[in-house]
Task: inverse folding
């Protein structure tokens, strides 16, 4: 075995005061697979420089804009040059930067959503196909080991034929209006930066993506009710939908940001004719399994834990009893992405949500917005593959 | 204070092999307010007699039919005669027996549902109004102390303006088809005995009643999806609805009997602009309160427990730390009913769901059935008061 | 089958303001096996009469003292006369009343502790042996279905050889001194009424009895540290002990009444070489089972629940998902006692802690008091059978 | 602000197949403060080289032994040279390597325990004092934000005068004998590599350190019972102790590795005259607070969460609802250590357990071993500061 070189990453966005940029840096660092070599962290020059300094970056590689970053990095020798660009800007920049980066031959790892809407997401496809690069999307919850456990339980028939699915994502941080609440709220509730949906784009897509991932089947129809609960807000901050899947299951999807006191209480339950399962993001190291006619049992994350599928066990760093969390989940995406980079794969990295997931999420949002305005009950979600 | 005489009750239904009859007897006995004096427990003479014997009844007051029971009891001296008739038969007999009992001057305490449908429920009203009797309905969950705590929290503004409500009642006992599952399943899934709805009539009404009780406001519109998941079953065994309330809250109601492995996981969450609350039937002695901007706290049932409203505290028999459960919840209904009997009230007993609740439940079922068949999204629930 | 006559009980103690008397009445009533026919509830005549009236008793059978009660009941015709005397007085009266009642030929069902100390408890033995009566002791926690489940799990080898046991009973109600806290505190912390130990007599015995019951083996040695945490209190309000059992297991027993904020958090964990189990009184309807090398699983109380031993299932009144609690646990003792009364058994009623348990509890308290004063580490508990 | 240079670390131990070395590397990487520049990972040359390669190390700085590592690094220019040595070898090498590293002028960050026994731990002191270096000890649990929250709650009087403390650390991984269980078991149960105690050295010290940290006071006396439960094992695999603290609190400490099915269920409860608290390692993001006479409440980890002390909030990387875990706890120690390195502090890094903690842990083990062999009840723990 030869020495493993670290993969060189750059970052757009994620200056002081941003939340998700730091999360990506922690996650990329955790497994020692990456080295941050450059960034364009903020349009504010001082912020940009301070961020670069705090990250031990060479000042010459802290760029004033993402355009400059791409231009200058391209001119560096290949063995120094950034290989992967991490995009953690507000949503409306995801697509322009992704396209430019891919066209310049860089892999892209993008914070979700992939785009502002379905059309924009689809526009990424040709750029990805034509440039021999990888595209990864930070649907972080897909990085949790026990989400993989749940998926494998379904795939291996532990539930039998799936009939019911309930997925919910209640948050409370937008209970009060933007003036009095978190600064993060401002751009997330601004249509020009965030897209056509607020709550559904921000967290509804997580719930939807988790559901389709664990079920390994598509939602085909939904009947939605979106609300703007807080007066003066310009986008939906709440919603729910009845859903139906391609193989005949039905269920409910809930996402809300006005559930006072709730943190990130993402939870999914799936029931088939042989059993049910339950997973919660805030206690992510357990999956409850309810086999029909037996006492319920609990699978626990961790190396050497009984009953884990390989897909789950491989995503644990520590033996049972050492709780891993959100950063480790995202790190699992980064590490899977690194593996694909090293293997010189293109398109989608195995184990990492890619453009297909991004397009799917946009189709979901479009359908939710359309359904919510309609007086007809059921709305089809277009089949995007 | 004079000696408190026990109230004399009779029972129709509840022979060997029935579940809910025994529950009513336990509940009626618990607080020492009632004496069971007669019954018509089963159309099977042997079952009927054995049940009467096991309950220490005088054989002369174990009657072959409910008609005989009413006729014979009426002929007894007033101070011996049954005062309250408890009805625990299959659903289709609830109304005929209720009417006959009220017309004979007996108070009625009826297992839910009040009737098979809205029209039948409404037909009870004139009989109740004209006979100076009480009518109580065993919406048992309304008997839990912490359900009253939740209601008072809403009424006292601890949540502010209510915006969201989620109520769910997943069960698993009908996951397999009737042939292989519980005997209880047979009549509950038979339209002629159970009414037009299976799951919604059986447990959806509980979820709905709990929701309107805790909110102290009405659901005005719903958008339902009912399913018959298990092949060959004649009634819905599953469903969900988007809902809207009279004061502008929205939410979701879920009821299902095919959620493999679930017991009676009735749960309600309510969120306002000042906080949220959560209560679960299977851990009924806690209410979680999430005041906006403060750590969440937990109210606990029991005498002397901090933060309880009188309405909750008065429904606890023991100090904190002694779990009370389902039988105590129903006993709270029976004891409130006894108080009303002694006070010679008529119509509805304070603290006990009455005919208004019964009619409301039927309006809900009718609206659910109608909505589920419709291609239009929203269905109004008629205002029944 | 002949008609089942109710068993006639009388009660000493349990007037207005008492806690445990009402608990016994609820429990005795729950299953319809008993009829309360007489009582001497309080030395305060007004309280006594009001209590009797509220319980629908014939005024002639509300007696001024327990001596009068025994004397007058004996003169009644056998088919009217009380059969079982329930003793719910302060502790120091348990033995005198028990002896008098047994000598008069009445069965005794006594609130714990059986006596003030070991010698007094042993003095009961000859009276029990000589009078063809039953003696039951309200070690209420032994009435929980899932305590029986745990015991059967041990007996059936699901844990293998038992090595470790931890039992704890933290309460908080004596955190503040008697002047400012619960009225119940006054007699419980008065040595003349309560015996030589406060906390250990009140709740330590529960922990100890539960431990020996679930293990089906005896604790042989202990090393105790008792404390009087609150200044001015005359008895221990806290303590803990290292323990060893006859078959070589070791562990810890904790009981305290100064754990601020705790209710009745009785909990037991047992570990063998094949697995472990855990049960908690405040969520009494579950037993966690941790089989070595498998995901842990949870047995749940209720009719028809998977994995329950007959001994547990027989103590549930309702199907899974209907929580039963403390009153049902005590009712299980009463109902088992009723069965033994009807079967004309003497001595101990199957399924009900009897005098042997009472003596055992006193031996435990004596050993704890002795050990706590000693500078030697280990103290033997005398083998009391 | 100038560019933040990464701190250069080396590692001894932690080759393929080791558990804790990888944990240290994840933790050191997480916040981007360190760069791993050299190592001596294994005495097996192949393992050593493969580990270095997988960590992207320059082959020239993967050394055959820790002695070579120190010798060669010292010869490198100061701006390239390792600054901190991380020691993750078996226990018996902790002291020799620590001394050599400190004498060579390197900071030391050592996996616990600091030494094999009290005398050896004390021998470190002069080397630390004389060399202007820092010494950090990986008592990882001290890195959890909510452990700091608990400590601050005590310090700020939220509990009043502390009276009781229960700390327990049940594990199950040594339930079966070494032949059939985890490979990790072999050296941990070998006295020559592990020291005089097995379970107490391995996890008892964690429980003890956590207790003294949260209480901000010392345990002065204990009464211990240590056991070797599994036949043939050479060190204790289980134990418990009654304890007393310097300010008059009492309690219990439990540590066991034969509790079948338990993972790392470290838990602490503290009670004072104004309230109690509870924290569990396996759900580390909550602290339960039970203020006397109020509903209990739950503090939750995360940026912006209500009620957090600065000491807790500063140790969270993400907003509420994003679970952080064990690696983040250790990363908090690493990051605090980095801050002290940059500030050119010596001795102990603020917020990181140091030699004082290490000596304290050894005093605890010595006292436990001594007490367990004694027939006298109480054993004093020497005051080590």
Result:
């Amino acid at each position: 075995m030869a020495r493993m070189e670290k993969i060189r990453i750059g970052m757009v966005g994620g200056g002081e005061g941003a939340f998700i940029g730091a999360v990506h840096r922690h996650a990329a660092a955790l497994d020692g697979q990456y080295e941050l070599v450059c960034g364009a962290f903020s349009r504010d020059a001082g912020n940009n420089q301070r961020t670069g300094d705090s990250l031990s970056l060479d000042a010459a590689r802290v760029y004033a804009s993402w355009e400059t970053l791409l231009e200058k990095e391209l001119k560096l020798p290949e063995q120094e040059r950034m290989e992967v660009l991490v995009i953690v800007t507000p949503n409306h920049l995801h697509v322009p930067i992704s396209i430019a980066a891919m066209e310049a031959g860089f892999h892209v790892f993008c914070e979700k959503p992939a785009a502002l809407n379905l059309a924009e997401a689809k526009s990424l496809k040709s750029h990805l196909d034509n440039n021999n690069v990888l595209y990864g999307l930070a649907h972080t919850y897909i990085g949790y080991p026990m989400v993989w456990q749940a998926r494998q339980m379904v795939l291996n028939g532990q539930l039998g034929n799936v009939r019911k699915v309930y997925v919910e994502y209640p948050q409370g941080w937008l209970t009060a209006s933007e003036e009095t609440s978190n600064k993060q709220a401002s751009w997330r509730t601004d249509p020009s930066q965030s897209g056509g949906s607020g709550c559904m784009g921000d967290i509804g897509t997580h719930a939807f993506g988790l559901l389709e991932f664990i079920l390994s089947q598509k939602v085909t129809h939904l009947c939605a009710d979106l609300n703007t609960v807080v007066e003066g807000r310009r986008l939906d901050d709440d919603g729910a939908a009845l859903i139906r899947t391609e193989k005949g299951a039905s269920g409910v999807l809930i996402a809300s940001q006005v559930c006072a006191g709730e943190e990130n209480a993402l939870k999914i339950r799936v029931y088939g004719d042989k059993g049910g399962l339950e997973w919660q993001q805030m206690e992510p190291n357990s999956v409850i399994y309810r086999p029909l006619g037996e006492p319920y049992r609990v699978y626990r994350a961790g190396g050497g834990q009984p009953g884990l599928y390989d897909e789950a066990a491989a995503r644990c760093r520590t033996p049972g009893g050492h709780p891993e969390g959100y950063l480790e989940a995202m790190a699992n995406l980064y590490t899977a992405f690194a593996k694909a980079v090293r293997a010189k794969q293109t398109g989608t990295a195995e184990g990492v949500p890619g453009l297909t997931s991004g397009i799917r999420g946009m189709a979901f949002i479009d359908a939710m917005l359309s359904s919510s305005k309609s007086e007809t009950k059921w709305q089809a979600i277009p089949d995007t593959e």
